[in-house]
Task: structure prediction
Amino acid sequence: MRSRWWLMAVSLAASGSQAQTNGWNMPVGVTDVSSDIYGLHMTIFWICVVIGLVVFGAMFYSLFRYRHSKGAKAAHFHEHTSVEVLWTAIPILILVGMAVPATATLKNMYDSSDAELDVMITGQQWRWRYEYLGEDVAFTSNMSTPRTQISGEETRGEHYLLEVDEPLVLPINRKVRFLMTSDDVIHSWWVPDLAVKQDTIPGFINENWVKINEPGIYRGQCAELCGIDHGFMPVVVHAVEEEEFDGWLAERKEAAEQEAMGVDREWAMDELVERGESVYQSICSSCHQAEGQGSPPAFPALANNEQLINDVDWHLDRVVNGVSGAAMPAFRSTLNPVEIAAVVTYTRNAWGNDTGDVVQPSAVAELIAQ
Amino acid sequence: MWSVVKSVLAALLGVQSNQKREEDFSSGRPAAYFVTGVVITLLFVLMLVFLAMFAAR
Ligand SMILES: [Cu+2]
Result:
């Protein structure tokens, strides 16, 4: 704690009336850790500025004062032990002086103990999946910027490439622990205002944590090149008051229960098609394209695909289990049975695939359970 | 002995006077410098380990 005060005193003195986020500097952020990091950054920045001024000042002054045209003569001596010791010792002291507060901050950053809420964050090509552990609430968060804005057919919105269909909702004033991993390649979950930038690595679980001080909407991006749509997997965090969060979570839990019940009932075709279209556009269209035309040879067309039209079981199996060794992911654990049934029904009845087939969620649930 | 330790410490810091360097090279056995060097390096490493353990508490 003492080093924290020391750090704050130095950074306050050093930064004076620093502007908040003006685009030129890193943000102060909305957590204690983020302002510690900002303070460290400014402290070290000003130390560097002072060193630079002293060293270059002395150098330029000597160059000017003892210039050749004024008849200056160079001194010829081989060594000066005490000066050498001095200019070795001073940097050591400066480095150790910077290491003390930096270590204190790092220790704090990595201490994710005593969290009140655990959220699992999973990177997927190309979206984020959030799971509130122990709460039965989970969803994927997809970029919601329309493709027409990206291709330039439409003017760009205010949060171009930084908006999602379902943001991660977090409470303020509570310590939230993140468990971070990936389903496919390395991604990195980065939100500057929360001072979190953590790689998500398949087969590993990294930990991090936040305790947000102010409600608001905080935006970030995937920060590890992860494939063709790397630029299209933004992060949006909604930080809300605690009561609002509890209400939201209860609502989502109820919705999840409703959804689970939806597996058992018989669904009508147009219900499934409507649901399936939205699943398709947010999840599948990045590879199989908006009209199911694919982009062969890498991504096969689903429209007018003979094998698909002739064989429901094969079609369903591809979507549930994926194609190992190819880029087609298995959706058995990332989409729920209703969504899988919906997207399969939709693809069997869209773009001229007029099979008339209806795949029921209950059948999908059975297949997944096998 | 003390002169050897002083030279090794000077090497650790990276600063040594030419006069002392010439003395070192004209007198004393090399083995003494090697052994002292290894021991002091080990002590330095142990000190860092101890510091890190202390900081991690
Ligand atoms: Cu990514």
Summary: Chain A is about 45% helix and 15% strand. The first strand of chain A starts at residue 117 and ends at 124. The beta strands of chain A are 117-124, 127-132, 137-141, 168-171, 176-182, 187-191, 196-200, 206-210, 216-222, 235-240. Residues 67 and 73 of chain A are 9 Å apart (CA to CA).
